[in-house]
Write a structure and sequence with these properties.
This protein is α/β, with parallel strands linked by helices. The chain folds into 2 domains: about 5-245, Type I PLP-dependent aspartate aminotransferase-like (Major domain) (Aspartate Aminotransferase, domain 2, 3-Layer(aba) Sandwich); about 245-379, Aspartate Aminotransferase, domain 1, CATH 3.90.1150. The chain has helices at about 5-10, 50-60, 75-80, 100-110, 155-165, 175-180, 215-225, 230-245, 245-265, 285-290, 305-315, 345-350, 365-379; strands spanning about 65-70, 90-95, 115-120, 135-140, 165-170, 190, 205-210, 270-275, 295-300, 320, 330-335, 360. The strands form 2 sheets. A 7-stranded mixed β-sheet has the order 1-7-6-5-4-2-3, with helices on both faces. Strands 8-9-12-11-10 form a 5-stranded mixed β-sheet. Helix 4 links the parallel strand 2 (about 90-95) and strand 3 (about 115-120). The termini are far apart. The mean pLDDT is about 95. Pyridoxal-5'-phosphate (PLP) binds near residues 170, 172, 194 and 204.
Length: about 375
């Protein structure tokens, strides 16, 4: 089945009791049993909810996965993956990733005895130096947030298979429309569905997709035991979002390309980070593993003072100054003080994330209006 058809029909079956074409919002906490232990497969909504199950079927289909689980947020999905581990286990993560993931690893899980190494994954072979008997998981993000570096998923999968460790890929930035990590050898895909999957900046949610029957059992046990499940209304919103993911992503890609090139040709801009440029360091890998380059772009001004960056950040009108990404409307963000403020400054600078970096989530408005807005703000 082609992507457009799959995204529209994913998880959807008419409601058996009424024929309603859209999955009803089963706003219930419990289910009546006909005798003790005799039920219709639904006992308590932390463990089972039909709206959530419909979404989980959709999640599996859009990532070409056998199984999927929905969580109350992206970080709750990440949290569940790390709970597969034991004290003493080690994780190798990318050194350029979502600040909240870094915060979860360093501030929460380190104190439970899990050790994290942060590697530059632009060359996948770099992770080999950190692999030892305690290594249980590789955690990768591509394109990375906010520097748009590309990590070779196939190469990472080959190394993790050889070492007998799990590979989990945060696929939030690409979305399943542009990239399917399980097809490239990853064991688990994680999404912040808050972003492109929901697509309308009106819901917080996370997802995990996997093929292994054993992994889904373990993760389902964590999901119901720890309880970070999304409510049915939120599941309905993401189900609706997924139906238009392909058309939204096409426009995000078109607008992203126009804006990336416009920025690059602007004399006031020093550097633009976007994997679609043929001279992007890992462009050939992006070309192999992605179907397009998306609407996420970062850039630095020639006047690289924080004051000038802040002036531009406060001067746009169509690009709203806000954290998050992947919605239909365009956003502008200052990673150093916003999305990535939880990463210590020295750590950030060392990894190339300067104080003056500006990140755009290019929406699906008319590209000419967006360029006009940036042009006036940059001045
Ligand atoms: C937003 C985001 C997360 C966290 O997801 P939430 O839904 O905000 O909890 C994780 N990874 C990436 C790449 C993100 O952009």
């Amino acid at each position: 089945m082609k992507i457009a058809t799959k995204f529209i029909h994913a998880g959807a079956e008419p409601d058996p009791s009424t024929g309603a074409i859209m999955t009803p919002i089963f706003q219930t906490s419990t289910y009546v049993q006909s005798a003790p232990g005799v039920n219709k497969g639904f006992e308590y909504a932390r463990s089972q909810n039909p709206t959530r199950f419909a979404l989980e079927r959709a999640y599996a289909q859009i990532e070409n996965a056998k199984h999927a689980l929905a969580f109350s947020s992206g970080v709750a999905a990440t949290d569940a993956v790390i709970k597969l581990l034991q004290p003493g286990d080690e994780v190798i993560a990318g050194n350029d990733m979502y600040g909240g993931t870094y915060r979860l690893f360093t501030k929460i899980f380190e104190k439970f005895g899990i050790k994290f190494h942060y590697a530059n994954m632009q060359d996948a072979a770099n992770i080999k130096t950190y692999i030892n008997k305690q290594t249980k998981l590789i955690w990768a993000e591509t394109p990375t947030n906010p520097l748009m570096n590309i990590v070779d998923i196939k190469a990472l999968a080959a190394i993790s298979k050889e070492a007998g460790v799990l590979l989990c890929v945060d696929n939030t930035f690409a979305s399943p429309y542009l990239q399917n990590p399980l097809d490239l050898g990853a064991d688990i895909v994680m999404h912040s569905a808050t972003k492109y999957l929901g697509g309308h900046s009106d819901v917080i949610q996370g997802a995990l997709m996997m093929n292994s029957d054993e992994l889904v059992q373990q993760l389902y046990f964590i999901q119901k035991s720890c309880g970070a499940v999304p409510g049915p209304q939120d599941c309905f919103l993401v189900l609706r979002g997924i139906k238009t993911l392909h058309v939204r992503m096409q426009r995000h890609c078109e607008n992203g390309e126009k804006i990336a090139h416009w920025l690059r040709n602007n004399p006031k801009i020093a550097k633009v980070y976007w994997p679609g440029f043929t001279d992007h360091p890992n462009h050939n890998i992006a070309q192999q593993q992605m179907r397009g380059y998306g609407g996420m772009i970062s850039f630095e001004l020639k006047d690289n003072s924080v004051e000038e960056a802040k002036r531009v950040l406060s001067s746009t009108h169509l690009f709203s100054l806000a954290e998050s990404l992947g919605g239909v409307e365009s956003l502008i963000n200052h990673p150093a003080s916003m999305t990535h403020a939880s990463i210590p400054r020295e750590e950030r600078i060392k990894n190339g994330l300067s104080d003056s970096l500006i990140r755009l989530s290019v929406g699906i408005e008319d590209a000419d209006d967006l360029i006009d807005d940036l042009n006036k703000a940059i001045g």
